[in-house]
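Progress note, sequence design subtask.
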């Protein structure tokens, strides 16, 4: 049975870490189902991936819409051996100033869609006694994040959720892995409106999405429970574990605040 081709479903599969993961699955001869909002981007990515000789199915869905997330489950008729919940978004700014609907959309995409898809496909995997799930967490899930309060909180959910269901299903033949990158050079910050943030302005500090994807892919294939991608991020999480949450929040506030605000503070000193 080893030569029977397996299929991976990847949300957010047309850019950033999701696209780099898709390339790794394609290299290992997995057929792919890639999901994203933009059909044109899906088509471009699918053509690129098909060059390796695999089958690629594209499904255009906005997974921040719960009806579309549920519809995706019903539309996928082929067997899914690996589920990758990569799609996610954030918004930059102070919680009191950010638009409520935008923040609810982040919760719907980062949390609710992950729960909907995981429940649907894990039930199928459990029936077969095998499968793999990779959830895109973040070091943000270990660090309370002023200027991105809701995003960081959603990633704390993903980490807790993945760890708990892994324990529940430890004898099921299904593995659950959380990939925890730090700041990565993707379109995430642009879409979140974060270009003014101190953390983004330092381009050299941003990780390469291909490196992050490789860390996640290797951890997934090894059945590891989680992987923090990047030495600097491991150190940051280790340090935060030794500090009170309030101190971690203050450090993140300073790291993520707008560059312009820091310049104003320096000018006043």
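Output:
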């Amino acid at each position: 049975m080893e030569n029977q081709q397996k299929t991976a479903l990847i949300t957010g599969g047309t850019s950033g870490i999701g696209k780099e993961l898709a390339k790794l699955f394609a290299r290992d001869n997995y057929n792919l189902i890639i999901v994203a909002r933009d059909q044109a981007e899906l088509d471009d990515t699918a053509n690129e991936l098909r060059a390796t000789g695999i089958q690629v199915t594209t499904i255009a869905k906005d997974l921040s819409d719960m009806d579309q997330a549920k519809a995706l489950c019903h539309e996928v008729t082929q067997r899914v051996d690996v589920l990758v919940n990569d799609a996610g978004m954030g918004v930059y700014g102070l919680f009191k100033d950010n638009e409520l609907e935008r923040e609810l959309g982040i919760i719907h995409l980062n949390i609710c869609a992950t729960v909907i898809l995981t429940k649907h496909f894990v039930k199928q995997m459990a029936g077969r006694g095998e499968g793999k799930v990779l959830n895109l967490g973040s070091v943000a899930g270990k660090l309370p994040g002023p200027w991105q309060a809701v995003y960081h909180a959603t990633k704390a959910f993903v980490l807790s959720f993945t760890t708990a269901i892994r324990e529940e299903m430890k004898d099921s033949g299904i593995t659950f892995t959380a990939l925890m990158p730090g700041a990565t050079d993707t379109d995430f910050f642009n879409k979140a409106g974060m270009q003014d943030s101190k953390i983004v302005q330092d381009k050299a500090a941003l990780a390469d999405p291909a490196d992050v994807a490789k860390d996640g892919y290797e951890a997934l294939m090894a059945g590891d429970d989680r992987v923090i991608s990047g030495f600097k991020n491991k150190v940051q999480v280790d340090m935060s574990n030794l500090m009170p949450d309030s101190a971690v929040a203050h450090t993140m506030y300073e790291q993520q605040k707008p560059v312009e605000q820091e310049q104003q503070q320096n000018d006043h000193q």
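The chain has one domain: 7-268. Work on this subtask will continue into the next period as scheduled.
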